[in-house]
Every structure is written in structure tokens, then in C-alpha cells.
Amino acid sequence: MEQAALLPAASANATLVFSHRGGLVMLRGAMYRGAGGSSDLRFAEGSRRGPAPAQTGEQRRRAARVDVSLPAAVAVLGPDGQPEGPERPFRTRDMSINGLALDTGAESFPSGSLLRFTLMLPDGTPITGSARVVRSAHRMCGLKYEDVDPAARAKVASFLVSKQRPRTPAPR
């Protein structure tokens, strides 16, 4: 669990998401490190205002997407894993920890295609890896990450958390 060291020591606004009986369950609360070191992560449901109800529902996606437009370069990979043509520039439409959507304009990639991608985060950090086309329609192509370095995924997660809008409390 070396990736646990990349998480903050504590967060009063944490969300724990897991699957249960075919749906996703989302619990809100606080995350903190226990006395057992960096891999001893703990989650406490609820907050000072009282516990938040668990939210469930049928979802197709496993991770929330954040609308963000970033430069990306993409090359189609052949069966041997080598590029089959030049890298082409695109922009992202949205991203999650598990994938992204590209604004492809008039071009499109067939579903099932394997692509090599490079994203440039606003701080100049490049994120590279491979992804599979899971959806292609209307100037958009949905990609699911296949091979992305765990440290790069942690940087993507940190970036996405920084882009999330704060939730306003529900009226009482």
C-alpha cells in the first residue's frame, strides 16, 4: 500500500466509494492516519453536523468525472504495442481517476482501439500511459486507462481533487 503515503495525513471532507450489490455506495466523513504509520488509513463516517446518509444508485462509471480541458497527444497502438501512425493533438473534455473523454472533432477512434496518450497537467506535469476506447460518438471518445504508472495516477487524483467544487450543505 505504498500509494497510501501519497494521500494527505488527514481530511475532514473525505468520500469513501465502494460497490455493493451491483451499485455504488458513497459515504462522506473524515479520513486520517492511525498510529500504525502511512499505510494505517482510517475513515470516520459523518461529521460534526451528524452522519450523512449513504447514497446508492446504479452507475455505469466507477469514478466521478471532472470537466476539464487539457492538451493531449494520442497515437493508435497496433497489436505489437507500437504506434500505427503519428501522434495527434486533442483536448480532454473530462477526466476521472479511471479514464477520460477526448474532444475528437471530426475524427474518431473505433471502440476497442488501444491508444498511447500523453496529457499535460496545468503545472507542466506530463501523464503518459495507454488507454482503451470504450465509447466513440459525436465528436467525443471515451477512454479507460489500461496502463498508467501508479505515481502518475496519484498526480491525476490530486489534480482532480483540486478541481472539484466544494459541496454546499443540504438545507435543514
Overall description:
- A hairpin with a 3-residue loop joins strand 7 and strand 8.
- This protein has 2 domains: 2-59, no CATH class; 66-158, predicted glycosyltransferase like domains (Thrombin, subunit H, Beta Barrel).
- It has one helix spanning 150-163, and strands at 10-20, 23-33, 41-45, 55-57, 66-67, 71-77, 88-95, 99-103, 114-120, 126-137, 140-148.
- The model is unreliable at 47-61 (pLDDT under 50).
- The protein contains 1 helix and 11 strands, in the order βββββββββββα.
How would you describe this structure in keywords?
single chain; 172 residues; mainly beta; Thrombin, subunit H; six-stranded antiparallel barrel; four-stranded antiparallel beta sheet
Give a summary of the structure in a few sentences:
The chain is 8% helix and 47% strand.
State which percent range the strand residues make up. Answer: over 45%
Q: Biggest β-sheet, characterized?
A: 6 strands, antiparallel, barrel
CA distance, first residue to last residue: 39 Å
The Cα radius of gyration reads 18 Å
List the uncertain runs: 47-61
Identify the overall geometry: elongated
Secondary structure: helix percent: under 10%
Count of discrete alpha- or pi-helical segments spanning 4 or more residues: 1
* Overall domain count: 2
CATH superfamily of the largest domain: predicted glycosyltransferase like domains
Along the chain, the helix and strand elements come as EEEEEEEEEEEH
Number of strands: 11
| Average pLDDT rating | 78
Strand arrangement across the biggest beta sheet: 6-7-8-11-10-9
CATH architecture title of the largest domain? Beta Barrel
Question: Which class of the largest domain in CATH terms?
Answer: Mainly Beta
Helix-strand makeup class: mainly beta
Q: Under CATH, the topology of the largest domain is which?
A: Thrombin, subunit H
